[in-house]
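Hi team,

As requested, here is the filled-out complex form for the 2-acetamido-2-deoxy-beta-D-glucopyranose run. I kept the field names the same as last time so the parser does not choke. Let me know if anything looks off before we queue the next batch.

— J.
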Amino acid sequence: MEIRKMNVVVVLVLTSIGVIQANTFHFPDNFSFGVATAAYQIEGGWNKSGKGENIWDRITHKRPEWVKDGKNADIACDSYHLWKIDVQLLKQLGVDFYRFSLSWSRILPTGFSEYINWNGVRYYSDFIDELLANDIRPVVTLYHWDLPQPLQDLGGWPNLLIASYFEDYAKVAFQLFGDRVKTWITINEPNEICDTGYGTGAAAPGIEESGTLDYLCGKTVLIAHAKAYHLYDKYYRNKQKGEIGITIVSRWNEPKTNSTRDKEAAERTMQMQFGWWAHPIFSTKGDYPLVMKERIRNMSQCQNLEESRLPKFTTNEIEYIKGSSDFMGLNHYSTWLITDDSENNCTIVSYENDMGMKNVQDPSWIPSAASWLKDVPWGFRKLLQWIKVEYDNPLIHITENGFADVGELHDTGRIHYHRGYLNELLNAIHLDGCKIKSYALWSLMDNMEWQDGYTLKFGLYYVNFSDPLRTRTPKSSANFYKELIRLRRIPRDTPQLIVI
Ligand SMILES: *[C@@H]1O[C@H](CO)[C@@H](O)[C@H](O)[C@H]1NC(C)=O
Ligand SMILES: *[C@@H]1O[C@H](CO)[C@@H](O)[C@H](O)[C@H]1NC(C)=O
Ligand SMILES: *[C@@H]1O[C@H](CO)[C@@H](O)[C@H](O)[C@H]1NC(C)=O
Ligand SMILES: *[C@@H]1O[C@H](CO)[C@@H](O)[C@H](O)[C@H]1NC(C)=O
Ligand SMILES: *[C@@H]1O[C@H](CO)[C@@H](O)[C@H](O)[C@H]1NC(C)=O
Ligand SMILES: *[C@@H]1O[C@H](CO)[C@@H](O)[C@H](O)[C@H]1NC(C)=O
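And here is what came back:
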């Protein structure tokens, strides 16, 4: 109690003198810094040296109008050729690790493990060696949204068989790279894979079957993750001595008013967006959150369905998934205000309708170039506090956090955002006792932002996409982050733009 009171005082004092500049907490010695990217967004070389087609290649080629600027990632940042330059950028920043993803179809062009593309293997193997030679730890995501097209032709993630093919792919990756890769992330943001890929259709493969296929997808993704985890745990961990976990994205959902209904709706939204994935893995009970099961069952009943649209787990599956992560990978960007809408029209089948809420953002919040991304640092701390209570203070790696603009070199909006969010992260560590081990800033450089094409930029480095050489130039934020890593605290000054 005494300590809690003191913390409140500290926060107030810091706030009154401008908490953002004045946070004197340091990042602990065992805390590490990195930056993150994903294969499809940076590599290019979409059909080079035997790579197979994936669902993002397919949709951007077949439906260019579906991407905001009609563009694709056939070349993107051309990291397939410029990877040595990328390592130099990482070296300049002074990061401890680099989080990147493997392209499944570069390694297994058909999606199946019978045929390995050794050119693709060599690319990643050389890249990992180059990172290690420069003292940068590889943190590797196995799946960052780029399903091989032949597996989509079998129905994609809603087909439970995909879980076994994912396990086969994971085995190839552990065998080939596990001697050097000590942190594995199985799957990035299942909510986006399932809700956006098979529900709203705003991500590849662009299927709009919300309230059904998204839930089938979810079951496969959770089982796929658990299969890869158990495979590693059983056959590779002893020898390779690494860690393996999943990365879940979460907004903070704040009740818009203090009414019981809005508070319940905000909690239900946390459970149905984040808990959908976290509860089966990180809670002591396992399985989906109770409120999610109840809510979808009720809506399904109202729709005269005999069974819930949310596919059940068997008792064995619940046990198999529970605890299947050495850490919680957490991606976080922004905050929403939630109002209750649980008495909505139950004849409408959708995940959104199942959640029974409406979400808005406060017009006074600092905007970014992305409509959904506002600079709301306090939401980050509230999310971390909620996770601490809900899942008994798990070990967390922040695997993404970033800000969108349209490409300014003197990117003060990005610096402001990271100052605020890292300040709250320090408070969460030092005042709330959250066990946060690392932070990966999204992203190393501007890249192909999925359905938004090249209209949004998240990079510390500017990439000239009209230049065949894809020249990379550090923005002010690169200097800011470099200084932060060097000092192991938040720098007081915003660096001037230094273009070399
Ligand atoms: C790769 O794709 C490009 C278009 O992006 C095309 O011009 C080229 O012929 C393709 N190469 C192979 C080997 O299929
Ligand atoms: C809800 O109540 C808390 C505590 O009394 C208060 O700090 C907060 O501002 C209230 N929120 C709203 C939206 O009214
Ligand atoms: C589901 O319906 C039951 C019976 O009407 C009700 O008691 C319960 O609160 C509902 N659950 C949710 C989460 O809406
Ligand atoms: C509910 O939605 C259906 C369409 O899905 C519509 O026909 C019906 O009129 C709506 N009911 C109400 C009460 O709005
Ligand atoms: C980091 O080290 C401190 C001091 O030894 C320890 O209390 C803390 O648990 C460690 N944090 C993590 C996330 O391992
Ligand atoms: C980008 O590259 C093109 C082609 O090399 C060049 O003309 C242009 O000046 C560059 N733009 C910037 C902002 O550096």
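Two things worth flagging: The radius of gyration is 22 Å. The chain has a mean pLDDT of 95.

Thanks,
J.
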